[in-house]
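Board notes (copied after class):
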Amino acid sequence: MDDTFDGLSAFLAVANHKSFTAAAAGMGVSPTAMSQKIKLLEQRLGVVLFQRTTRRVALTEAGANLFARLKPAIAEVEDAIAALGDFRGRPSGRLRITAPRTSGGVVLPPLVTRMGELYPELSLEISLDDAFVDIVEAGFDAGIRLGNAVEKDMVRVPMTKQSAWSVVAAPSYIARAGRPRKPEDLLRHQGIRQRMITTGVVYRWEFERQGKPMTVDVPGNVVVNDIGLMVALALEGAGLAYVPDESIADAVAEGRLERVLEPFVTPGPGLCLYFPARMQEQPKLKALVEIVKSMRDEPRTHPKGKATNGASPK
């Protein structure tokens, strides 16, 4: 008699990865074996679960319906298994975290090191992505984002205080185009503009004058969606860039970039760790929260002494 659950783990792996090859690698089997598992499952259920082409794998309507109904049940099973850690007394298993590229590269290394020292039985998988990620849909245990970007139904744990930002340019650009003295001057400059990955909107630079907020739609011929590329272009003298301090601290300290309009640039919200409420009793999440809280007040400064917080515009 066929096992009711036979093939479902393979189905879930392919549905999550949207790839037979990646799913097979994750389960430690060959792509051929993975394909055979799905074929046998489809034959047993009497429906086609995936549409396959040479370029992509997609769920059929029947497959999408099965996937949607299985995910909550699988989450409950994973929670039940993870809860066994309470009986072992120490966190173990895999902890998947998503974070922004720039700030993730700053806050995560010491966090990962501390986790490894205290909980060697726990493995970490980290994905850096500047777009906002639905951690439940994507299968992450927790995420790190600016506080104002986190959904209100998530448990939030503050990680940093306010984030520091700067408008910068290379000395060669300032020598050629002049130094802006007030936000309105930016309308006569070239900005390296940023299109927000989540909203698709080109970011308007935010300032404050005499306690009143203001924005400037800075003109520019280049629009990008990556802070690292914005910094690289600024270093080449392509224009002014509005970026988080941790991305330009070394370049400023070395004189390769200069800050402008400092009196008008205000801090943004700090980073926070977030996760679904149902996850907070898992030992691995408890351990992560404890370490975040213990590290939160430890001083971290750039060479110029500015706080190392931030990820994407405020």
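Comment from the instructor: The chain has eleven helices and 14 strands. The longest strand covers residues 93-99.
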